[in-house]
Specification:
346 residues, alpha/beta, Rossmann fold, Dihydrodipicolinate Reductase, domain 2, 7-stranded mixed β-sheet, 6-stranded parallel β-sheet, globular, binds nicotinamide-adenine-dinucleotide
Length: 346
């Protein structure tokens, strides 16, 4: 491996900037180039973070021999094309969650990955695996402190600002892809087993009237192979007056113990100013001593470091593939209003 790994970013939006902060500051990384179909966005991000090249076409970025690894940070439904091209170009990849949002994309990505697996490495950015409370719970469960796991409850919701104002492409995704993918992966991480059957019910009353024809909410039951049952809720319509973007509650129950988390609000930190009170972020992506910190940045930093050291990634291509297979089953279940076995063979 070279002294510094050369990085390219495909997708210069909100989350592309989180990647740029790490590649432009990490001592093992160098940000070489940025691509976005809107060339101006690529230029602005490249100039802000010191990359010399920017392109409207990601294929030109992949042709650049200085680029060793790429971050795919395009909208949820647009990961497949740059991923397959990056595999063909022999670049290492960190791809944003969800890995893919259709069976066809998942199949094409699986084929591309398998054909290059001995040459390139892939991580899926399930950054919740770096969230301190979830890692502490994971380690307690592994040590057997909760005894035999019985059940879990996980609610992970967004304020309505996210689908209506933040994401221009919300109608091509859904809360199941956008946050349900984190929910499913976190439970797999904690429970240490795969989901075998799901039952999901959705409701569409609010977003559809705002011109975003996707369900507002999915309430779902997951059955894991090891017998654990989980209830999950994902909704995209929490009122904007909610003090934080996410509404999060997690409970894991075992034969000898239980953990409860209310991760909403960063509620350990309250700020009261004239005319406003809120809960500043200190956990997800704050800047500490001038450096990008928090678990969302930590996940990207870990990609750089494990790429360099050769250690296995904490969230692999297989994790992304399995999570997308579970979400496809949840969507099929919600459509048919029937339980659905998860098909991992696709
Ligand atoms: N890890 C996380 O928790 C997390 C958080 C937020 C977003 N994300 C994920 O990151 C991805 C991007 O989300 P975002 O919020 O940055 O969206 P965004 O809309 O802000 O940015 C996406 C960018 O991709 C560009 N783009 C689209 N197609 C492209 C292509 N073929 N080539 C190059 N650029 C292209 C768009 O012009 C846009 O600038 C999504 O998959 C999202 O789910 C992950």
């Amino acid at each position: 491996m070279k002294e510094k790994i050369g990085f390219g970013i495909i997708g210069a939006g909100l989350w592309g900037e989180a990647h740029a902060r790490i590649y432009s500051t990490h001592p093992l990384a160098q940000l070489i180039a940025v691509s976005d179909i809107v060339e101006e966005k690529a230029r602005v991000l490249a100039e802000r973070y010191g990359a010399k090249r920017w392109y409207a076409d990601f294929r030109r970025l992949l042709e650049n021999p200085e680029v060793d690894a790429v971050a795919i940070v395009t909208p949820d439904f647009a990961h497949c094309e740059p991923f397959v091209a990056a595999m063909e170009a022999g670049k290492h990849v960190i791809v944003e969650k969800p890995l893919a949002t259709s069976r066809e994309d998942l199949q094409a990505m699986e084929r591309a990955y398998r054909s290059q697996q001995d040459k390139v490495r892939v991580m899926v950015d399930f950054h919740a695996r770096f969230s301190p409370p979830l890692v502490v719970a994971h380690d307690m469960i592994k040590r057997g402190e909760l005894g035999e796991l019985v059940s879990a409850y996980y609610r992970l919701n967004d304020i309505i600002y996210v689908p209506t104002q933040m994401l221009s492409w919300a109608k091509h995704s859904s809360i199941l892809w956008f946050l349900g993918s984190h929910t499913v992966d976190t439970l797999r991480f904690l429970v240490g087993s795969e989901v075998k059957r799901v039952y999901s019910v959705s409701s569409s009353k609010v977003l559809v009237k705002l011109g975003i024809p996707v369900p507002d909410i999915y309430q779902s039951i997951l059955e894991f192979e090891n017998g654990v049952i989980a209830t999950i809720e994902n909704n995209w319509i929490v009122p904007n007056t909610h003090p934080h973007w996410n509404d999060i509650k997690l409970n894991v129950l075992g034969s000898k113990g239980m953990v409860n988390m209310d991760l909403t609000n960063n509620q350990a930190f309250e700020r009261y100013l004239e005319g406003k009170s809120d809960h500043p972020d200190f956990l997800i992506m704050p800047t500490l001593h001038g450096k990008p910190a928090g678990f969302a940045h930590e996940s990207i930093r870990d990609f750089v470091e494990r790429l360099y050291s050769g250690e296995e990634f904490l969230a692999t291509f297989e994790d992304g593939y399995r999570v997308s297979a579970v979400i496809l089953a949840l969507l099929a279940s919600a459509e048919k209003r029937m339980p659905q076995e998860v098909d991992y063979t696709l």
